[in-house]
């Protein structure tokens, strides 16, 4: 990874590798951060350089105001990404909110820069043109929002039980949910890169038709795969190993 990328607060690359044949940009879920992908750098081979996106309002950027809508987030993120997209072939992976963001970034780059990721891997979110939420998370009270976090899973119990820390992180969680809850899909250009969709069978957000709908957003190959588990199925070791194996095999075989 270039020195400029290493120094940018928008990117975390735990194991820089100039010899990698592909760079995998990873987009975190609502309330999450780049640390969600630290283990990926250790479990994927040197041929793939993992670069985790770090949005403001969390971890090392905790005291920066988070985005509350997609449009300004997209503009800022694309500006940061552009200088690094010609260095080597790249792919996107996004989970939940990250699936929306990575898809919108891919579509924006195709439409405005005539460049696309070689692969778009999306997880924990149905085809964005099919999903609506009639009970927005971001408008709920702190108490109800915390109950929803417990139901969704993925939030460490020690964090949920720490009132001081929850007061610190909850505004970012709420802002992230506002990005998702106010997101409206606008039909744009179809992607020419393959899309691969993943999810947990017990995730209440997902259905077979919702997952298959991702295939309507690309002219290229589409496939989907489900795992035992809920919305955060990928945090379970066996699921993560299987997921990374699928990503690696896809990159190696070119399909």
UniProtKB/TrEMBL annotation:
Thioesterase domain sequence ranges: 23-247
GO BP of this protein: lipid biosynthetic process
Superkingdom as given in the UniProt entry: Bacteria
Family, similarity comment: Belongs to the thioesterase family.
Protein name: Thioesterase domain-containing protein
Organism annotation: Tumebacillus algifaecis
Lineage: Bacteria, Bacillati, Bacillota, Bacilli, Bacillales
């Amino acid at each position: 990874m270039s020195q400029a990328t290493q120094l940018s607060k928008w990117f975390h690359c735990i194991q820089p590798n100039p010899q990698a044949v592909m760079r995998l940009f990873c987009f975190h879920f609502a309330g999450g951060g780049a640390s969600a992908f630290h283990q990926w750098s250790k479990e994927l081979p040197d041929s793939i350089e993992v670069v985790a996106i770090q949005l403001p309002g969390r971890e090392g950027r905790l005291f920066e105001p988070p985005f509350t809508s997609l449009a300004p987030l997209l503009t800022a993120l694309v500006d940061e990404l552009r200088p690094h997209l010609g260095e080597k072939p790249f792919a996107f992976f996004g989970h939940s909110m990250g699936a929306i963001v990575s898809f919108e970034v891919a579509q924006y780059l195709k439409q405005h820069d005539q460049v696309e990721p070689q692969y778009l891997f999306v997880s924990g979110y149905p085809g964005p043109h099919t999903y609506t939420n009639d009970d927005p998370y971001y408008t709920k009270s702190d108490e109800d929002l915390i109950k929803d976090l417990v139901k969704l899973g993925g939030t460490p119990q020690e964090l949920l039980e720490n009132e001081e820390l929850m007061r610190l992180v909850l505004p970012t969680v709420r802002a992230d949910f506002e990005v998702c809850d106010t997101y409206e899909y606008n039909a744009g250009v179809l992607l020419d890169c393959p899309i691969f969709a993943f999810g947990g069978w017990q995730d209440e957000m997902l259905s077979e038709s919702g997952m298959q709908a991702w295939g309507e957003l690309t002219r290229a190959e589409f496939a989907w795969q489900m795992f035992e588990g809920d919305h955060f199925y990928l945090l379970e070791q066996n699921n993560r190993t299987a997921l990374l194996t699928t990503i690696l095999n896809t990159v190696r075989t070119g399909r």
